[in-house]
Design a protein that fits this description.
The protein is an alpha+beta fold and 140 residues long. It folds into two domains: 1-87, Orthogonal Bundle (Arc Repressor Mutant, subunit A); 90-140, Ferric-uptake regulator, C-terminal dimerisarion domain (Dna Ligase, domain 1). The protein has five helices and five strands, in the order H-H-H-H-E-E-E-E-H-E. It has a three-stranded mixed beta sheet, with no helix packed on it. It has a two-stranded antiparallel sheet with strand order 1-2. A hairpin with a 5-residue loop joins strand 3 (92-96) and strand 4. The chain binds zinc ion (2 copies).
Length: 140
Amino acid sequence: MIDLVYIAILKANRLRPTTVRLAVLSVMSDYEDGTHFTIEKISDDLINRGVRKSIGSIYRTLKEFEDSGIVIRHQFDSIGTVYESNTGSDHDHTVCVVCGKIREFYKTEFDSLRKEVVSESKGRLIKHTQTLYVVCESCL
Ligand SMILES: [Zn+2]
Ligand SMILES: [Zn+2]
């Protein structure tokens, strides 16, 4: 039953409902909003459900999801590549350089500064990332 929802998401993004795509979507839907996950995490969670897929095929699936806007990919120093579901919420991240904890934040001031800079450049904003590397409260 629930598969119908995932099939619909894939169809809306012109992706055929293959088992690996359906399985990855299903694992992702169990994550809380704002969860940042690695390919290895997806692989472990698939194995826990008795689904064995190669890292390569999970990687290709996430790349397709990224291209269709289903997920967003980030590259953080000391953590590497993480993904998150694209909920459409505009936010930036802090990353703890000790434990790797990722927090999301949104500041209207940053947002208006970005708009100002883009407007001064007379261009159009396509993408922005702002990552603040910190030592988090529990690691201080
Ligand atoms: Zn920390
Ligand atoms: Zn995020």
